[in-house]
Design a protein that fits this description.
The complex is a heterodimer. Chain A is an alpha/beta fold. Chain A is built from 11 helices and 10 strands. Helix content of chain A is 41%, strand content 23%. Chain A is globular. Chain B is mainly alpha-helical. Chain B has 2 domains: 159 residues, de novo design (two linked rop proteins) (Up-down Bundle), CATH 1.20.1440; 322 residues, ABC transporter involved in vitamin B12 uptake, BtuC (Orthogonal Bundle), CATH 1.10.3470. Helix content of chain B is 64%, strand content 2%. Chain B is built from 24 helices and 6 strands. In chain B, the strands form 3 sheets. Chain B has a two-stranded antiparallel sheet. In chain B, strand 1 and strand 2 form a beta hairpin. The longest helix of chain B has 27 residues. The chains are: A alpha/beta, B mainly alpha. At the A-B interface, helix 2, helix 3, helix 4, helix 5 and helix 6 of A face helix 16, helix 17, helix 18, helix 23 and helix 24 of B.
């Protein structure tokens, strides 16, 4: 298997607390991986290590065999984009401008041409605008193009965040709970969107609590429990694995879904 | 009657509820208000001649002695009163709102004069009855204004009319041209109203405030009528034409009544601060980095220019041409900007404010102590030669054909061009990759980094460009004033600049210029209030921030953010869902 994104022995300690312990996995080209685990298992911490927001205490992350730097901006430049668990759009920018910011790393403008708005500048702006329009159409937000991000309906904000991440032309997209707070229809729409993204040739890692969503979406599922990678396998393997059931919930397999939903609702 | 006044301030959307009982009498109230305003304007305003002589526009005038000699604020009140009566008889869209604007104008004009008379005259006797003389003008006018507001508010809520009228290009150009010329005359009138505020005219502050109230009321009424919005839309359609004409109109100020040496100096100073405020607007308005020591860069530019053009350079027989001086000053200031900007990589928010505050203090203290001998310490650096071109000093008067430009007009022209250039820089940068990166950092720094923005260099660039602009303005400032002293760059100046940016509207060009104009004209105009100057200043700031938090000329985005009634409301329940996730 030829991994495009590869984490080897990633360990993250905050003071005495070990948030991640020796986590290793590989993401193949065009693959969708699901990352599940109870709250506090270290899923988002792993994302932060993958995107250079945190410097892992030990271990490293490589993209196409090259070790990624500990700098979110440069990681994005090299082709790993992400969304956030609690939506982090630029609220007082329009949907279009949000996506344009995502184009930042793929645009060339020197300060002088920005200052004078010369022909080179205009070409790059027109280029970015075209790309942005395409992406907004891709996620179905063309009608909200000039609307402030803060005014968008919740589900559309999530979609806009994905469009913004896609604007950086990533080869790997990390989605942190993309369907949190969504109803069944919106969740389904998101599933289709992620498939469409995969069809663009982008590999995807998804964190999600909704196991039904994960098991029907992903090619492979990783289960993270207390900072350790407990099980790795296809959805069927993971679903049936007694260790997952025990560690995750301590309940029989057929009740997993029900209990997770119950837990979600009380949360 | 005071209770009416308290009830009247209802610019809130639905005045109908509380004001329902008076709604049927709206027209009657307005006519009564208009009539009272008229009568008030013609009654005497003071019972005796003040110590400094008759109050402006002969406020002690008796109604019957000289009914036609109505000028100044009384003329404004007469016109407002007539307008109110006409508006209540003629059906025009949104007249309720227009009347509210007029009414508030009447109240503002009356209050400005009343308070001054009461304070100067030593009590309410000045405006009511004393020593057998009666003068109920202010009170009657105040009641009239309140009634107009009340009547206007009691009308059914009307939407602001939208004017869709279009014409061919040349007609619209002509309309715009007329509008801009009127704007120029208005600016000149506001600038010169009340006179120079020296011993010769002790009433200038009150006259100015009163005039400002009248202008405010008029603009509010015009805004309510939808005219201003329409003009804005037309000028947006002819953007290039507008920019060019506005530039020429700005350059034409010396030809108006403001064309004296004194007003040219005031206008040039405003220009310096406007340019500086636009620079600060990059740092604060776009990149969201709170800078409390920004005026130091203006100072650095000024001191560098002072050394290059003044005695220090003359010692070594160096004569640096003015354009080069400006560039060097700007570069030096920009370099310091980068130095001050570098801590921003590590500190955010409040801590950054403290760092910049400290830098500002370091600058003031060092220049006060003449560190390195560059600043002249408390002696300042005097004798900086004026800018000259073609053998003509910029502070001389200039005669071209039959047109005689006052002293200082050339400096004014130069600063207008500088401000225009700075505006161009700001506008172009704002709509570029760099500008978007700044705004993204302001909105959410972590998300910006996750989008591949190298926040460090981008933030330093904001500081650097802002400082460069200030340095540029500083070089002009040094040559204009001829003397550069550390006292011009104290903390208060930084605060005032920051207030100008926030007051005018963060992230916009007209906002920064308007803010700078207001904040640097007010102190000039309110001199006679000496001790209360800063108090009035502060009250004005508080009022504007309370009633218009988005600033006077808000960014289109920020307007949507802070204005109560715009934008698509988020679908119900999303907030709750977001909180739950």
């Amino acid at each position: 298997m030829n991994a495009i994104l590869e984490a080897t022995g990633v360990t993250m300690q905050f003071g005495g607390l070990t948030a991640l312990n020796d986590v290793s996995f590989g993401l193949s080209e065009g693959e969708i991986i699901g990352l599940i685990g109870p709250n506090g298992a270290g899923k988002t911490t792993l994302f932060n290590c993958l995107t250079g927001l945190y410097a892992p205490t030990a271990g490293q992350v490589g993209l196409r065999g090259i070790t990624l730097p500990v700098d979110p901006a440069r990681v994005t430049q090299q082709g790993v984009a992400r969304t956030f668990q609690n939506i982090r759009l630029f609220p007082s920018m329009t949907a279009e401008e949000n996506v344009l910011v995502g184009r930042h790393v793929r645009m060339k403008q020197n300060p002088l041409s920005s200052l004078l708005h010369g022909p080179g500048f205009r070409r790059s702006e027109a280029d970015a605008a075209e790309h942005t329009a395409k992406l907004l159409a891709f996620v179905g937000l063309t009608k909200f193009s000039d609307e402030l991000a803060r005014n968008l309906p919740y589900g559309d904000q999530r979609r806009l965040e994905i469009a913004r991440a896609l604007a950086t032309e990533p080869s790997v997209l990390l989605l942190d709970e993309p369907t949190a707070g969504m109803n069944a229809q919106e969740t389904e729409a998101t599933r289709q969107l992620i498939f469409a993204i995969r069809d663009l040739g982008i590999s995807v890692v998804v964190i999600e609590h909704d196991t039904k969503f994960i098991f029907t979406l992903c090619d492979r599922v990783l289960v993270l429990v207390q900072g350790e990678l407990l099980v790795e396998g296809t959805p069927d393997e993971v679903r049936g694995d007694p260790r997952v059931v025990e560690a995750y919930l301590g309940a029989p397999p057929d009740e997993v879904d029900a209990q997770i939903h119950a837990a979600e609702e009380t949360r | 009657m005071t209770t009416t006044l308290e009830k009247a301030p209802a610019p809130t959307p639905e005045p109908r509820g509380r004001l329902a009982p008076v709604a049927p009498y709206a027209s009657a109230l307005q006519i009564a208000g208009g009539a009272l305003t008229l009568i008030g304007a013609l009654l005497p305003w003071a019972t005796f001649v003040l110590n400094e002589g008759p109050y402006p526009e002969k406020a002690t005038l008796e109604f019957f002695t000289a009914p036609l000699a109505v000028t100044g604020f009384r003329l404004h009140l007469v016109l407002f009163g007539i307008a109110a009566i006409v508006l209540s008889l003629v059906t025009v869209p949104a007249r309720g709102r227009m009347l509210q604007g007029l009414g508030w104008g009447v109240v503002a004009v009356t209050l400005a004069n009343t308070l001054y008379l009461v304070a100067e005259g030593g009590g309410l006797g000045t405006i009511t009855a004393a020593d057998g003389a009666v003068a109920f003008g202010p009170i009657v006018a105040l009641v009239g204004g309140a009634l107009i507001v009340l009547g206007g508010s009691a009308r059914r809520r009307e939407d602001k009319p939208v004017w869709a009228w279009r014409s061919n290009r040349y007609v619209e150009w002509a309309i715009l041209l007329v509008t801009y010329v009127l704007l120029l005359l208005l600016v000149a009138a506001v600038l010169t109203s009340g006179g120079q505020g020296t011993a010769a005219n002790v009433y200038s502050g009150a006259v100015f405030l009163s005039f400002l109230g009248a202008v405010g009321g008029l603009l509010a009424a015009l805004q309510a009528s939808g005219l201003l919005t329409w003009i804005a839309a037309v000028s947006e359609r002819h953007r290039l034409f507008s920019v060019v004409v506005l530039l020429f109109v700005a350059l034409a100020l010396p030809l108006t009544q403001a064309g004296t040496e004194y007003w040219m100096t005031v206008a040039a100073n405003i220009g310096v601060y406007a340019a500086t405020a636009i620079g600060l607007n990059i740092v604060v308005g776009l990149a969201g980095l709170l800078d409390l020591g920004y005026v130091a860069f203006l100072g650095i530019g000024a001191f560098v220019a002072a050394n290059l053009s003044g005695a220090a350079a003359a010692q070594f027989d160096i004569e640096v041409p003015f354009p080069l001086v400006m560039v060097i000053s700007a570069v030096v200031a920009g370099t310091f900007g980068a130095v001050v900007g570098s801590p921003t990589l590590r500190v955010r928010g409040d801590y950054l404010a403290i760092v910049t505050l400290a830098f500002g203090e370091i600058f003031v203290r060092s220049s006060q102590n003449n560190i390195g001998g560059f600043t002249g310490g408390s002696n300042a650096i005097p004798g900086i030669p004026p800018v000259s071109a073609f053998g003509n000093d910029f502070n001389d008067e200039l005669i071209i054909g039959s047109v005689e430009l006052p002293r200082g007009a050339l400096y004014y022209v130069l600063i207008v061009l500088i401000v225009a250039a700075v505006m161009l820089v700001f506008g172009n940068l704002k709509n570029s990759r760099l500008g978007r990166a700044w705004i993204a950092i302001r909105e959410d720094e972590d998300a910006a980094r996750a989008m591949g923005i190298r926040t460090g260099p981008v933030k330093i660039l904001a500081f650097m460009i802002g400082a460069t602009i200030a340095g540029f303005a500083g070089a002009f400032f040094a040559h204009k004033t001829g003397t550069v002293s550390y006292e011009s760059f104290k903390f208060l100046e930084s605060v005032t600049l920051l207030a100008a940016v926030i007051l005018g509207g963060m992230g916009t060009i007209p906002g920064a210029v308007l803010g700078a104009s207001i904040l640097f004209v007010l102190p000039e105009k309110l001199r006679e209030f000496a001790d209360y100057r800063l108090l009035l200043f502060g009250i004005a700031l508080i009022l504007i921030m309370r009633f218009r938090p988005q600033g006077l000329v808000p960014d289109s985005h920020r307007r949507a953010e802070l204005a109560p009634d715009s934008g698509v409301p988020p679908t119900p329940g999303t907030a709750a869902k977001a909180a739950a996730s």
